[in-house]
Amino acid sequence: MSSHYVIALDQGTTSSRSVLIDHDARMVDFVQRPFTQIYPKPGWVEHNPQEILFSQLGSLTELLARHNLSADDIAGIGIDNQRETTVVWDPSTGQPIANAIVWQCRRTADLVQELCGDPQVAARIRSKTGLMPDAYFSASKIAWLLDNVPGARKRAEAGELLFGTIDTYLIWVLTGGLVHATDPTNASRTMLYNIHDGCWDDELLELFGVPRSMMPEVRPSSGLFGETSYPGVPAGIPLCGVAGDQQASLFGQCCFASGQAKNTYGTGCFLLMHTGDVAVDSANQLVTTIAASAPGVDHTEYALEGSVFVGGAVMQWMRDELGLIRTAAESEALAASVPDTGGVYVVPAFTGLGAPWWESDARGTICGITRGTNRNHLVRAGLESIAYQVADLVKAMEADAGRPIDVLNVDGGASANDLLMQFQADILNRELHRPLNIETTALGAAFLAGLSCGFWSGTDELRALRASDDVFLAHMERARADELLAGWANAVRRTVAP
Ligand code: ADP
Which residue has its alpha carbon closest to ligand 1 atom 27? Predict the structure, then answer.
């Protein structure tokens, strides 16, 4: 094999990174470029697609230059991306018709209510797409652009406009406009894709008024999409792996089989469990989504997904709003200086409570405070709140899947906190595995690309490459864990009905 590396284009919500990964699956280097978050009105979030593009390509060319790499040195490029964010562009000029509408943007909440408010319609959407109707997903964002950018609907109906999530837009530009394609993981977040039949759904396209001609071709996550053909980027590098960020991280964690699961501890938390070829319908309002598959898997693979809205963000709040800590990392030493929270619970329901509570009107609570409560107790309660919320989510997911998650693979910025991980293992009574490389999202994109171009032989080789994990085993007495969990449930009850 002549090429020594694969590159992951890790296109996130606040920055674009290009990551160089070697044959031992080690992250050799990366270049990161932030881009502007645009907030035109309260609740609205936009990105300039061209700024994303230039931040992504700038990071790629800088990475290549830094290591003096040519196209021959790179076996393939994989893309992982912020999901759902919507771009509509004119292929004759390459110009987006407007800024991208970001997944967080709430501008179409009323539109979704209007189109999907009927419980029967909502149930049909759910059964076809695995999603609960929400402004979060791409469908209503496309509709908004077509209805609000002058002339857009007519141009779309005349076949003059293309839609894509960020992966699709990057692929289209990087292949010199030759390839208009996405992968099933990204398609499954649009709310226009039938996850059982594996196709864009005519009924849903019609419901949201989206012409089929705008939609990208859906190709396997691990396979050739095209080759680089863009000024300033070495020509002829295969683009051969694509997945939405959470599915990429599931793959990067080597969760290739049914029952394997990962949780990412970032600003929010994302729990995904591979469910093999079964699209599990959730009784707890979790989302059914498509998992990225290795080459040669001839059936669609699925995952259950749930999220915690406020995860690591509770530490940001304690830092920025309460001034209790200077850095998130400092929370560990402060929390470790007390044996427990002294009965204090923080329920960070800043924007309501998600699964399994689903109380959008709930707001945060701190309870159990006594005269002896100090900063360390509060910080510890903040950290523990992350673990409790994840434990609730794990319980809901295990109930849906009808099987336990024996090992929880963890990653994300806050997974670096050993105290949090140990507490998580304790209250879950499960084993936690933290890989040395917690950049699992980029790794997943690299894996998908590297498998399809023969850089790695198969998933067995990828598993074997995984360096030894940090393992956290449950040590806490069950009676103590149950007592703490009962206290948390009580705190949540007081949050929901104060
Ligand atoms: P994202 O990708 O969502 O931006 P990261 O994976 O970079 O997030 O994680 C950052 C989040 O994790 C922040 O909310 C931060 O407060 C929290 N965090 C980072 N390090 C720690 C730590 N050592 N202990 C607790 N929380 C942490």
Answer: 414
